[in-house]
Design goal:
CATH architecture of the largest domain: Alpha-Beta Barrel
Strand order of the largest sheet: 1-2-11-10-9-8-7-6-3-4-5
Structural class: alpha/beta
Helix content: 25-40%
Distance between the termini: 45 Å
CATH class of the largest domain: Alpha Beta
Strand content: 15-25%
CATH topology of the largest domain: TIM Barrel
Number of domains: 2
Largest sheet: 11 strands, mixed
Radius of gyration: 24 Å
Order of helices and strands: EEHEEEHEHEHEHEHEHHEHEEHEEHHEEH
């Protein structure tokens, strides 16, 4: 069993979909917040503000029109997409339409996979998805009565596997091994195991079930990784399918990789992309006349009684900004359309850092 960066463990190879996730080259298309199984899945990480809502999101951005999806795919130089929810099978006509939209724009090689709990998966819905061009289906199914739908999708030509949370405890581990054996029996391709995570929406229920966070993590559940290793060893020894473990930390890494792909394409003239995939710039406030002086001397953008300026230039003239009695700071933001602020570095902090150099 190979040890990968960030603790990702895999058995026998690497699927196309996992490769795109790892590189941040996958568009995440959230097609609905509705799902009939929220009460049966106490570990579900979907945020409360999305649950049972009829909304569409692409990565971290709301979708108001179809062009928003294409635009985001272009901004992150996406090579594929993952369709998720809620439960996508509840809105299959919408899913099929989005698949066709992406395939028409980026070609048949644009890899698209869909996550589903199999709720409305049947021969008719699978035919619709085949016609649209869906490449891969990742089933999230504990109920053995639904496993026949995995085989149905496989028999109809889809690349098929399971994506499940790695839940500590004998009964959960036993169920995962039984599912892995079934996947092997029908010649399915893979099982992906996700490290169980605490989120604001599931924290209370997970704690009531006896789960606790890892001491070195804010979100990962204690012993979830060990449970995954147990199942992966079984997969390696007893099956021929691919097995893969995605740690909680890797989810953050994937988001950062996607930001990195996006930041260079959306950076405004005063924003500098960072190694973390964020954007950083200088912001100066003060009298209009003084700001106009700095603008004339050093450039930037004047906006709402602020001068927005290249971060490197801001650092160069930090002492002058202080001498002029202006308020200054470096601002680090997420490279999404709404530019959510991550960190702020006051002028005095910047001056201290310069002195330390």
């Amino acid at each position: 069993m190979e040890e990968l960066p960030l603790g990702a463990l895999r058995v026998r190879g690497w699927s196309r979909g996992c490769d795109l996730c790892w590189r941040g080259a996958k568009l995440v298309l959230f097609v609905t917040g509705k799902c009939p199984l929220y009460e049966r899945c106490p570990y579900c990480t979907i945020s409360n503000w999305r649950r049972n809502k009829n909304l569409v999101m692409v990565d971290e951005n709301p979708v108001r029109k179809e062009e928003d999806i294409i635009r985001e795919a272009e901004l992150i130089s996406a090579l594929g997409a993952g369709i998720t929810g809620g439960e996508p099978s509840l809105v299959l006509h919408k899913v099929a339409h989005y698949i066709e939209l992406l395939k028409d724009r980026f070609g048949k090689g644009f890899h698209i996979h869909m996550y589903t709990n199999a709720w409305k998966i049947n021969e008719s819905s699978l035919k619709m998805l085949i016609k649209a061009g869906l490449d891969e289906i990742r089933f999230h199914v504990w109920d053995k009565r639904l496993w026949k739908k995995v085989k149905m999708a496989l028999d109809m030509g889809f690349y098929v596997g399971a994506e499940m949370p790695s839940i500590p405890g004998k009964k959960w581990i036993r169920s995962l091994k039984e599912l892995a054996s079934y996947l092997d029996k029908i010649d399915a391709s893979f099982m992906n195991l996700n490290e169980l995570e605490f989120t604001p929406s599931n924290r209370k229920r997970l704690l009531s079930m006896g789960f606790r966070p890892k001491p070195d993590s804010e979100v990962a559940v204690l012993e979830s990784r060990e449970a995954a290793i147990d199942v992966l060893r079984f997969i390696e020894k007893e099956t021929s399918i691919m097995g893969y473990f995605c740690p909680a930390l890797q989810k953050e890494y994937q988001v950062r990789m996607r930001w990195t792909r996006r930041s260079g394409n959306v950076a405004r003239e005063y924003e500098i992309p960072t190694d973390e995939g964020t954007l950083i710039y200088g912001e100066v406030q003060g009298p209009k006349e003084t700001l106009m002086y700095l603008y004339t001397e050093y450039g930037g953008i004047l906006r709402e009684e602020k001068l927005l300026i290249d971060a490197y230039k801001f650092q160069e003239i930090a002492e002058e900004i202080k001498d002029l009695g202006l308020i200054g700071r470096l601002v680090e933001v997420i490279p999404t359309d709404n530019r959510k602020v991550l960190q702020v570095f006051p002028l005095d902090f910047v001056l201290r850092e310069k002195t330390d150099e």
